[in-house]
Amino acid sequence: MREVETIIIGGGPAGSSAARELLSAGRDCLVLDRKTMPRLKLCAGWITPKVLNDLDISPVDYPHGMVKLDRLKFFFGRRHRFSQNAPTDQYSIRRIEFDAWLLKRTGVDVAQHTVHNIRRENGHFVIDDQFRCLNLIGAGGTNCPVKKACFSPDPGRLIVTQEVEFETSPLCETCTLWFPFAGSFGYAWYVPKSGAVNIGFGGLRQQNQQWDKSQLWQTFIALLQREGCLAEEPPPPKGYSYYLGGRRKQVVDHRAYLVGDAAGLATVDLAEGIGPAVESGQLAARHILGEADYDVGKISPFSMPWFYRL
Hints:
This protein is of the alpha/beta class. It has 6 helices and 16 strands. Strands 1, 2, 6, 7, 8, 9, 15 and 16 form an 8-stranded mixed beta sheet that branches. An 8-stranded mixed beta sheet has the order 3-5-4-11-12-13-10-14.
């Protein structure tokens, strides 16, 4: 049985951020992930200047495609839509590149392993009778095995999406958002990336249990074509779900931690998860190091707090 001080389940931005903090302090840790990197991850890939600052990344030094989004276009309303343009300072990346690069940059040891069973034993965690650790960080997303084994079910609101990312030359360089779409709370998006675009829509599951996904998708594609964002027929969409901004009360339990999507930390305005994932991974690691409390209340619930001043 392999024994390390800290095991992190999940190698996305939350897991790699925690690993980088621990390794920088000279602490022992291991990442378990059920898939190898690089891998496709459905995500708009929206990152803020704060994310770059938290990760010590300069756009000019990032070895893959990073697109600066200096203008956002918003459409509001259903039948009689009106638009608003806003200057911004955001970026877009492709998760298939970003996640793999972040994890490799840490230098952490990674083992490909699908977690089936976690039990507590003499103050430690034993994983599938193969791994043993003192600290356990759950960074495995909405269905993280650490959450299932050590914490109560999510109290937050479940977001369901239909989206696709595909390689193409973006016709429009402006990130565009439509409010509302897919329910009174949901919205749709078009995000240009380096050699690709990500398009999709999402909303609360309780509002969309009866939605006609195929019809809604075709309506969305027609909308993109009218706005000059899309000319070709995109690949079929896939579904994805995660909990929205629940800020669950319990994210630490006797050296077990939940970070990122596993803790329901997506922002409440855009349901964006990369920023909260990075912050929570770093905070959990600093709690292990005795440098800070792990308080998710310190993590901003908004991707664009300035949006409400438009």
